[in-house]
Amino acid sequence: MIINCKCLKYQFDIPSHEITGEGRQVRCEFCNEEWFQTNPENNLEQNNTQSNTEKEIPIPKIYKELSSTKDTIQDTTQDKTNKFSFLFLSFIIILFVIYFGMLENKDLILSNYPSFIGFFESSDILKEIMTQNINWLKESFQNLINQ
Prior knowledge:
Elements: E1 2-4, E2 11-13, E3 23-27, E4 34-38, H1 40-50, H2 69-104, H3 106-112, H4 117-146
Antiparallel strand pairs: 1-2, 3-4
């Protein structure tokens, strides 16, 4: 038998022999909500005695964790954030691959496209700046360690 948590986020498959008589007190293991679960067999017996002429055929349900609209919105936002992060990281990696590929083929590129000399000059300046900053960081860490 399937019962719904009082918070309406979870469903549980409980053996029917666990809830006997009028019902029993149950507690959700996830949200710690407690409620009195009535025995659905008692309800079926009452319904059968009231109208034997019309019986509804139960429709099977897919049992899964129910989610509220707020949870769905947060999940969608999280998915979009993850997708954006992945695309942004991929874009940065592609730029680095192109950049280092151009540096490796500097002579070939300059022989075919001499106007790219500015790119390679700025690249050399950037390389020098990065080297100086890395050396400064190394010296700073060594000074901290030696103190």
